Structures are given as C-alpha cells and as structure tokens.
Amino acid sequence: MHLKDIPQIVQLSIPEKIFLVEELLDSIYAAEVDVAIPHDHISELEKRLARHRSHPDDLLSFEDLCKKIESRK
What we know:
The chain folds into 2 domains: 1-35, no CATH class; 39-71, no CATH class. Helices cover 66% and strands 0% of the residues. It has helices spanning 7-10, 14-31, 39-54, 62-71. The longest helix has 18 residues, at 14-31.
C-alpha cells in the first residue's frame, strides 16, 4: 500500500497526518501482536551490548552528546 493509493491521506494537513499516524500506532499497540525481530537486528544489538560490557566507560553523558552534536553545526 502506498500513499498514492489513498488520495484522502495525501490531501491531509501535516497535523492531520501526524494524528493519523498516532492513531495507527495506537491500534497496532492495542492489537498486542508479537512482531518478530529480524535476526540481523538481534545480532547488531548483541554486538553493541558486548562492546558496551567490554568498554563501559566509552559512553558519553547526555549533556556531552548534545555538546558534540551542537559543535558539528
């Protein structure tokens, strides 16, 4: 399904589209359906967790992260 297939959605304002997305997400959460996590996502998370466990001090505080991002602008 694509937006072009539903012209009523294309014509909505940005706030209306955001509201629609929120409604769609709420309906998905309410369905309580288990969604399989792709194996490559699990593998990546396991790698990141292993790296964190072996180098726990390599993390930035939220404030330092914000400063780093701001300095790139």
